[in-house]
Amino acid sequence: MAGYRLGLDLGPTSIGWALIGYENYIENRLIDVGVRVFPEGVDRDTRGLEKSKNEGRRIARGTRRQKERRRRRKLRLVRLLKEVNLWPAEPEEVKKLFQTDPYTLRVRGLDEKLELFELGRVLYHLNQRRGFKSNRKSGKSKDDGKVMQGITELERKMNEVQARTLGEFLFKIKACERIRNHYTRRDMYQTEFEKIWDKQKEYYPNILTDQFKRQLADEVIFFQRPLKPQDDLIGKCELEP
């Protein structure tokens, strides 16, 4: 009885094969051999570690979305501030307002009355620097751990200089240290927002209403988009209903 036997060697980037003919169940001739080599399904970095081919596109797409959301948040904030005269309407006045030091205003706002546009500048600045807030259910990952270590160190430094708020701490160190070289937490900004709001409400009770506060804080400045449901990515099991 004659026939053929196919042997395969399956690897991650190649398939080797050999075809052998036999007669009376005795292998007696090699018909052909070969190998098909194909590219890996992943890229590799300089250290040889695997990296998804889609990773670069995914990161770029996420960055574009983040920038667009940040842009829309700024536009909405400015629109709300203009409605209550906390933001200038003329471009020249806006340009002049941006020349003021926001950290100085954030410290002054804790103890004394700010002009309306100065208060708007403070709120705009808090909207730009919102701090870290994890969207993960566990709140723990390798990156989160690094961030939390930085936040713990920042809190230690704030206690050392007896800073009441994050803005006051950054104001105190900005002459000798890079102020953006710190990991910050979202609730640090929320605490500062509350302190400044409570003080300025003494001077502008008709403007800084509870309704306006909810609009600014909950719907714009500290709004956090919920994670997109991933249920549609879960497949149906062929064995269990």
List the helices and strands and how they pair.
Layout: E1 2-10, E2 14-23, E3 26-37, E4 42-44, E5 50-52, H1 55-83, H2 91-98, H3 102-108, H4 116-128, H5 142-160, H6 166-173, H7 186-201, H8 210-221
Antiparallel strand pairs: 1-2, 2-3, 4-5
Beta fraction of the residues? 15-25%
Indicate the low-confidence ranges by residue numbers.
Answer: none
How many β-strand stretches? 5
Q: Whole-Å distance between the termini?
A: 47 Å
Q: Please outline the major beta sheet.
A: 3 strands, antiparallel
Strand order of the biggest β-sheet? 1-2-3
Structural class: alpha+beta
Helix content: 40-55%
Mean pLDDT value = 87
What series of H and E elements makes up the topology? Answer: EEEEEHHHHHHHH
How many alpha or pi helices?
A: 8
Q: Radius of gyration, rounded?
A: 30 Å
Shape: elongated
What structural keywords apply?
alpha+beta, two-stranded antiparallel ribbon, 15% strand, 241 residues, three-stranded antiparallel beta sheet, 8 helices
Task: Note down, in words, how this protein is organized.
The protein is an alpha+beta fold. The protein is about 45% helix and about 15% strand. It is built from eight helices and five strands, in the order E-E-E-E-E-H-H-H-H-H-H-H-H. The strands form two sheets. Strands 1-2-3 form a three-stranded antiparallel sheet, with no helix packed on it. A two-stranded antiparallel sheet has the order 4-5. Strand 4 and strand 5 form a beta hairpin.
Summarize the structure.
The protein is built from 8 helices and 5 strands, in the order βββββαααααααα. It has 241 residues and is of the alpha+beta class. Helix 1 packs antiparallel against helix 8, helix 3 packs across helix 4 and helix 3 crosses helix 6.
